[in-house]
Amino acid sequence: MRTRNRIAIRATLTLVVMTLVASSCGGDDAVEGSNDAVEQETGPVTLQVMNFANYMPEDIAERFKEATGHSIELTLTSSNEDALAKLDASPDGTYDVAFLTSPFAEGLIKAGALEPLDHEKLPNLSNLYPEATQLAFDEGNAFSVPYSWGTTGICYRKDLVGNETIDSWNDLLDPSPALAGKITMLDEDRWILLPALKTLGYSVNTTNPDELAAAADLSIEAKQGLLGYDAETFYTKLDSGEAVAVMGWDGWCNYVADTEQLGWALPEEGSDLWADMMVIPKGSARLDAAHQFIDFLLEVENGQWVAENILYKVPNQAAMEALDPALLETYPNLAMSPAELLAQEPLRDLGEGQPAFTDAVTRVKAS
Amino acid sequence: MRERGSFAGGVEAGVVASTPPRIGGLARSRYGRLTLAPAFVWWAFFLLAPIGLVLVSSFFRRGPFGGVVYELTGANYTRALDPLYLRVLWYSIRMALIATVICVLVGYPAASFIATRPSARARNALLVLVILPFWTNFLIRTYSWIVLLNREGVINRSLISLGVIDGPLDLLYNDLAIVLGLVYGYLPLMILPMYAALERLNPEVLEAAQDLGSRPFRALRTVTLPLVVPGIVAGCVFVFVPSLGNFPVPQLLGGGQRIMIGNLVNQQFLDARDWPFGSTLALMLMVVLLALLVAQSWVLRRSREIEIDG
User: Fold this and answer.
1) Pick from A19, A237, A354: which is nearest to B273 by CB?
2) Who among B56, B84, B150 is closest to A240 (CB)?
3) Which of A195, A177, A348, A188 is nearest to A266 (CA)?
4) In B, what residues contact A, Cβ < 8 A?
5) From CA B195, how far away is CA B115, in angstroms rounded?
6) What per-residue confidence (pLDDT) applies to B273?
7) Is the pLDDT at B251 greater than 50, yes or no?
């Protein structure tokens, strides 16, 4: 019995080590093989697309097939982290088109995990605002094309904030008695420190320990005025009146039920710029179709669908100009201009500095 | 001594039951080994291998864009011992302990009530009621507490309209709400093993105690409790373990203002994409749980000795 047990344990350990070795070798292959061209499939292909749920028109697959003859198989991701994990865990060439928010796309660009884009095959790039080619992490859209973009600000209930003018992060960090205890802030690593960082005049991408410590201290003080941290249901808290002013992503603020009373402020200290990017992961064997699909989504009607249904701003100038002006009145943050957006600081991948940043966030949350 | 057969038959409930010798005999036969193979493969692939992976990756470091760089280092362990993380661990243990104690206090009378119903139908109906919440997703059940407890929620609204309070109470987004969420979520896991132990309790033992002049409380203390200790301990483990690692409850009911070790692991794996450090924190959690299981087996051994000697 005893020796048998030992064999079993040894077998299991071997298995573990083999899995590890196999996964590490897989990683090496990816780097080595990155220069080799992947043999391309011809004829009508099935494109593997990875995207968040309900983020494209429902009939997109049908219309794309009609237009190009190619089919689409959609893999849903619940978050950017989930998307990265899926890309990491699958062999190269599993996915042909993926959607990721800018700092995550930037990480993939830096890691050499994306196919360069052939602009010849993306004629609809001309639909984009000129500003959309100036995103700091990928100037000229060499590896990624923006699908939607936005920033983070304060959404509030006009009827419940009284005579307060909401225009500064300090309205949340050091709230007046009318607002105290009725504020939420975003519960996400990259956003928890943002109001404090901006108020102190630091970059949202800082990894400087002193700056992070100062921002964490300020954020900890600000917890006294908070109802809570919330990155998922903050707009429903505005609806119920539980919260009267919340830190929120612009597009999400538009999800409140009662838009009559929806106020939106882009704080004077500045904020971040995020963009959801379309990319082609390394090793795609359907490069032509992948380009066609990205180009298809850049068509006016598809960009317009995103603005009208997701209520996000899109970098697609033609689509934004086609919107009903009434929509921009209902949702004040949809009317922000690209210039105003580009004046915000782009969120960047923090690279080696990420652990220090997360430590500061942990300190805020554990206090 | 502890190898002797137990007095009350199968007092031990569920997982904590000692292995009866007959099954051991079966396992020793060739046929027995064959029947164990699926369980062993499952265990090796889905328990041992993942834990092995976690253990191994805790000694590597995070790459610049996430991922794992295969370079041996002990840095994750020094980082995990930072007071920042130890404080979170201690807070988690405290919350899980409080939740467990409340579950014992609430669960014992409930289990005892169910076990003493004379008709089997009533017992089964009550047990179904205990299990019923499990038919709904844990997250949805947790969200429903927000509907009840928030400042504009059902409880505050009713109390205000009844004139009991003037302004809304802050029932949500604090430690109390977290404990409530844990107790609510895991109470059935306490009641079930307690019920199993109580139900098998030989009523004649209690009658004997009564006949010999023992008052009810004394009988509870000196006869019932020692016999159902294994059930209680099993319940405590069932409640404490998932409470300690729980992360949705602090996030939803705590308003994300306090974090438990589960949130930390979640944060490291997802937000920070630091799998090696996340693994280290997960192992820390496992060490605490392992210590707990050792303590449990010690208590069980003691209780069995009481059973035999007492």
Assistant:
1) A354
2) B150
3) A195
4) 28, 40, 44-45, 48-49, 52-53, 56-57, 62, 64-67, 70, 84-85, 87-88, 91, 150-152, 170, 172-173, 251, 254-259, 263-264, 267-274, 277
5) 6
6) 86
7) yes
Give how far A187 is from chain B: nearest CA, Å: 7
| Residue A298 to residue B286: CA distance in whole angstroms | 49
Shortest Cα–Cα distance, A136 to chain B (Å)? 18
Residues in chain A: 367
Residues β-bridged to residue A149: A275, A313
pTM above 0.80, yes or no: yes
Nearest to B44 among A15, A81, A184 (CB): A15
> What sign does the dihedral A210-A211-A214-A219 (CA atoms) show?
negative
Residue B15 banded pLDDT, cuts 50, 70, 90:
very low
Which ranges constitute the DSSP H helices of chain B? Answer: 21-28, 30-43, 49-57, 75-80, 83-115, 120-131, 138-149, 154-161, 175-199, 203-211, 216-219, 225-245, 248-252, 261-269, 275-309
**Whole-number average pLDDT of chain B:** 86
3-state secondary structure chain A: CHHHHHHHHHHHHHHHHHHHHHHHHHHHHHHHHHHCCCCCCCCCCEEEEEEECCCCCCCHHHHHHHHHCCEEEEEEECCHHHHHHHHHHCCCCCCCEEEEEHHHHHHHHHCCCECCCCHHHCHHHHHECHHHHCCHHHCCCCCEEEEEEEEEEEEEECCCCCCCCCCCCHHHHCCCCCCCCCEEECCCHHHHCHHHHHHCCCCCCCCCHHHHHHHHHHHHHHHHHCCEECCCCHHHHHHHCCCCEEEEEHHHHCCCCCHHHEEEECCCCCCEEEEEEEECECCCCCHHHHHHHHHHHCCHHHHHHHHHHHCCECCEHHHHHCCCHHHHHHCHHHHCCHHHHHCCEECCCCHHHHHHHHHHHHHHHHC
pLDDT of B11 strictly over 50: no
Among the listed residues B163, B151, B235, B143, the one whose alpha carbon sits nearest the alpha carbon of residue B194: B235
Which of A349, A339, A297 has its CA nearest to residue A132? Answer: A339
Question: Angle at Cα A339 formed by Cα A335 and Cα A345, nearest 5°?
Answer: 105
> Average pLDDT in the A74-84 region?
89
Q: What is the identity of the amino acid at A169?
A: W
Report how far apart, in Å, the C-alpha atoms of B302 and of each of B171, B291, B305 are.
Answer: 41, 17, 5
**pLDDT value, residue B225:** 85
Please state the ipTM of this predicted complex. Answer: 0.79
Phi first, then psi, for residue A295 (nearest 5°) are: -65, -40
Contact at CB, A11 and B257, closer than 8 angstroms: no
Compute the distance between CA of residue A348 and CA of residue A106 in angstroms, rounded to an integer. 7
User: Sorting pLDDT into bands at 50, 70 and 90, what band is A31?
Assistant: very low
Mean pLDDT of all residues in chain A? Answer: 89
pLDDT at B310 over 80: no
In a mutational test of the B interface, the residue from A6, A10, A16, A108 whose CB has the highest number of chain B CBs within 10 Å is A16
Identify the H or E element spanning B58.
Answer: none
pLDDT tens digits, B261-305: 999 999 998 888 899 999 999 999 999 999 988 988 888 888 777
**Block residue for tokens 């699958």:** A90
> Region B153-159: what's the mean pLDDT?
91
